[in-house]
Amino acid sequence: MSESPLQRRLATTTLLISAGTVLGIGALVFGTAVIIGLNVPGVPAHLDLLIIAAMLVQSVGTLIALAFVLRRRGHRISAIGFSRPTGRLFHLLWQIPAAVIVVLGTQLIVFAVTGSEPVSDSSTDSIAGSVGPVAAISMFAAVAIITPLWEELFFRGVIYGYVRDRLGLKGAIPISAVVFALCHGVPILLPYMLALGLCLALLRTFHGNLWGPLGLHVAINSTASLVLLQVAFT
User: pTM to 2 decimals?
Assistant: First the structure.
């Protein structure tokens, strides 16, 4: 499926403001959390709750601020990629499993070649088990639902759209995938994130909107975060 261009081209200024918004909110929220954790008496004893609160505020704040910036810059969210869903989304029934196999297969090959082992989930288990169901559900919502929303709007909406308008799909797919992988910055997971970024960009191209990649992104994050609910409710 060939994509139609945005009703209004994304300017370089819009790209820079959007990137600054994403980075600025992350730095502000987590920087504030660190200051609170180091200076407010009693907070270190509830560090897990502070981490969850920071994640929730960062994800919600980034989504709202990014949508606000784009609207103020003259771009409707539907034009960026959240247009009306179509029956073409039924292809996700086979596309999501196929993408999961590709992404996990890529990382397994990396582990086999490097001799590394998968990252332990013990720290995540500890957080979920110590904060209770409500906080665990909040963390799950932030990681599995809200974060995919703003990341798709930014990576497959703004970055993909900006590059596509200038270099076409052959540039938009790999460049948006590389930026996505680099921004998730754990070296051993770069192949995994690059493979995921490519799958998300291909779904963006196939479906012509952000609903396709959002479906995969939510599925991946939800599966990885199910441990939060399992630990919290057992």
Answer: 0.90
